Amino acid sequence: MNAIQSLPDPQFSSVYGPVKSWRFGSSLGIDLIGMVSTCSFNCVYCQLGKIQKHISQRQIFVPTEQIFRDLQAITSWEDVDAVTLSGSGEPTLALNLAEILAAVKTVTKRPTIVLTNSTLLGDGTVRSALKLADIVAVKLDAISSNQLQRVNQPVATIDLPDILAGIEQFRQEYQGFLTIQTMVLSPWKPDILRDYIQLLQHIKPDEIQLNTPSRPRVLVRQLDARGNNVTESSSYVCQNLRCVSPKVLTALAKQIYEVTKIPVRCPPRALLQLGTSN
User: I need a surface site. Which of 43, 157, 167, 196 has the fewest CB within 10 A?
Assistant: First the structure.
């Protein structure tokens, strides 16, 4: 494979945070993508704003050597609970994902987490790389093709059946901790909830995380948006997103847990954790 490789930007640091995460504690971020936001989705709620480079082709964005150096520059690890690979787009687009995970494990000695939108799980090399992570959180916002187009806005070559098939295949192969992350933007109709539950019963993840947008959506690309530095009081031009109430999210989580018995977690504002996940 002929890898397309971007030149490193001397003003860019691949390491940021730690970021306070309700899901993973104090998380040090690793950005595999770089200065230009790049993703196979262009989600309507994305905190990065409109994705600048909307692609599904894998390449090397940030050299592994740079990430290794940036990690070695960290002087204190006392406040870091985990290391999360996410940042400025979809991390599985990085052709050097496996190398980066190996480097992170060598330097940090902390649990490694990858947040993925699930679009490349049909690729065996992507699944193989993700097996090096301790936790993989896969996105599943849509259970219909119309919902996928409306909420996630994928590149033209990506469709829902392929995404679901990739998640299912990865679940069969992966021995680590698999969580399903779902963004809830509006109350669900009974048929949507039914279909979602059926998918979860088939996939059998270790945990379900229901979320609502917690940060404003910047309208112009800001590197700060990859962490949690953008708030309603920020000077950036932002779009505040309408969210379902904690009450609605809690009721949905209870319905899912009662049927599946899979642990369900929601943000602290919803004050809910059903089941236990070790």
Answer: 157
Q: Convert the pLDDT of each residue in 209-222 to its tens digit.
A: 999 886 555 665 55
Residue 252 token pair: 């949905």
Structure tokens at 205: 């993840």
User: Is-cis flag, bond preceding 18, omega within 30?
Assistant: yes
**Rounded CA gap, 94 and 18, in Å?**
22
Distance CA 254, CA 183 (A): 16
Claim: this prediction has a pTM higher than 0.90 = no
Q: Does an H or E element contain 167, and which?
A: helix 160-173
Q: What is the largest CA-CA distance in the chain?
A: 51
Provide CB contacts within 8 A for 195, sequence distance 6+: 143, 144
Residue ranges covered by each domain of the chain: 15-274
> What are the tens digits of pLDDT across the range 68-106?
999 999 888 888 999 999 989 999 999 999 999 999 999
What's the CATH class of domain 15-274?
alpha beta
